[in-house]
Amino acid sequence: MSIRKFRFLALSLTALSLGAGLLAPAFATDEDIDATIEARAAIAITPVTDMDFGTVDFAAVHSGTITLGTNGTAALSGATGLALSGATTAGVVTVTGDGASTVDISCETGGVLTDGVADNTLTLGATEIVIGAGAAFGGGTACAGLGVASLTNDFSSTANPTIRMGASINTTADDIDGTATYATDGGGASDDPVTLRITYQ
Length: 201
Known about the structure:
Strand content: 35-45%
Number of strands: 11
Structural class: mainly beta
Shape: elongated
Distance between the termini: 90 Å
């Protein structure tokens, strides 16, 4: 009897051992996945002055182009029946960013000024920009449309650039309709200011 009991006990232990092997967990390994995000300060554009062509006196029959350099100087080109006077200024903005990245600077090629009453218009065109010191009209870099970079700026070398804008008004293609103050925010339905856009590369 003692021998039989021993064999039964041995068989039970073997079965238990096999069952434990089937229930043992599979081999596993862990790996940590890291995450990063680059944070950059938003670009801030601060307007300083708008473009101001001063005052133009016009005869009933007139033609020619009024130019405004990025240095704020207005002049006449190929003009008859026109005379300029008064204070003039280029469009000027200052820019801040993250202090390290490079940005693309683009701008619209023109806009529309209206008298705000009869919606008479003057067409603003040939917009150009510079970074830093201004120049006479034609000395800047021509705007090529939003999203098409005319200039770039590296904030690591020029942390707070000043951008200056000039443009022209062609009275031959679109003559002056009457005595009024024409502006891109003149309140007319056709008002269209020039947009300047700055984006991180």
